[in-house]
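[step 3/7] fold_predict: job queued, chain A
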Amino acid sequence: MANYLNDAVNENHFSELVVIAPSPMLEDLKPCLNQAAEKVLKRCIANDLTHYTGPELKKRVDHALELPDY
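[step 4/7] structure written:
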């Protein structure tokens, strides 16, 4: 995942990044991001959304993005 994100940043596929993932994955992912990816990383949200699809997934992502940073 880190390699994919690092490559995407290097190829200018996006200028801002928000990662929503379970806490253990965030802990593993963040140290593997390169400097360019760290610069565009705007937020990490610890949340496991793997059980949701379609409108329910969108609703939960939207809700997660509304939560304050901690």
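[step 5/7] annotate
The beta strands are 17-21, 41-46.
Residues 50 and 57 are 9 Å apart (CA to CA).
exit 0
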